[in-house]
Write a structure and sequence with these properties.
By secondary structure, the chain is an alpha/beta fold. It contains eleven helices and nine strands. The longest helix has 27 residues.
């Protein structure tokens, strides 16, 4: 891992168009050799986008592997490049990062699993402190670099699932924006089966419940690639009105619908290699079984 990190450090000096094309090439290779992840990706796309032809889904899957690979190699820029370089490469829409709006009251920054999500974190960390859930990495060297990279500009509080909900609530009450990634399958605990692209998906209700408990506003933020290897776009969406309301399941369904809309805008950049529909209601069979 230290060798890989050394290579990433060397490559981060390359112009982004060169590094991006390198990432695409590695991704194309991974699409060919990572058969299990390719199967998961194509299964997700068949479930979520049945209106497309198989050739169209394969094209999205291949471009997803390229995008995911790019995001990994380009992370070296986020970790080690100068602040001036990052500011040139990150385009914030509709304008500067809305620091005052996100720190004037408790704020949940809703960030679905697009491959460039770390870019959204970097754009925020350059201007204000924040907090986020964190999965400790098995490799100590990689874990140290990842944590340092996320906190290189402003202090960042990182919580683990083992810490529970109380540190998150305290951070929000202190008006420290909470960077939340709610769209993965963590099983049935604290989740409800809510449609995602029409498929019942075990979905954490934490966004709605935390917003209801703390009075936090929910401000979505999504990062995607700019065309032509020119950098990244970070888009801050308007705060959701009347959220969550009295019905936590309805609020979670509203969240999933928003994510669906954003996925359709950049389908190759969503995290399709995750088994989003792994947990099934009522003991249903796995949707990821290979046909014999």
């Amino acid at each position: 891992m230290k060798l890989l990190l050394g290579i990433m450090w060397l490559l981060h000096w390359l112009p982004l168009p060169v590094l991006g094309r390198f990432g695409d090439a590695i991704g194309s290779l991974l699409f060919l050799v990572m058969r299990t992840r390719r199967h998961i990706t194509l299964t997700n796309l068949r479930l979520c986008m049945p209106e497309l032809s198989e050739a169209e889904r394969i094209d999205i899957a291949r471009r997803h592997f390229q995008a995911y690979s790019r995001s990994v190699w380009e992370r070296g820029i986020l970790w080690w490049a100068s602040e001036e370089r990052l500011k040139r490469l990150i385009k914030v829409e509709p304008g500067p990062v809305p620091v005052e709006e996100m720190t004037s009251r408790p704020t949940i920054l809703l960030c679905p699993h697009f491959v460039c999500l770390d870019v959204a974190g970097a754009s925020i960390a350059m201007v204000t402190s924040a907090s986020s859930m964190y999965v400790q990495q098995k490799n100590a060297a990689f874990d140290q670099v990842l944590r340092a990279g996320r906190a290189r500009f402003q202090p960042v509080k990182l919580f683990t699932r083992q810490d529970g909900i109380k540190p998150i609530l305290r951070a929000l009450r202190d008006k420290l924006p909470y960077f939340m990634l709610p769209d993965m399958d963590f099983g049935e605990k604290d989740a409800e089966f809510v449609p995602f692209f029409g498929i019942e998906a075990a979905t954490l209700t934490a966004t709605a419940r935390i917003a209801a408990t703390t009075g936090a506003q929910v401000m979505p933020v999504i990062a995607t690639f700019l065309p032509g290897y020119q950098g990244w776009r970070v888009k801050f969406y308007p705060v959701w009105d009347n959220y969550p309301g009295p019905d936590m399941v309805a609020a979670t369904r509203r969240m999933n619908e928003f994510i669906e809309e954003r996925v359709r805008e950049a389908p190759a950049e969503y995290f399709w290699t995750h088994k989003r529909f792994k947990t099934r209601p009522n003991g249903e069979a796995s949707l990821y079984q290979r046909s014999k």
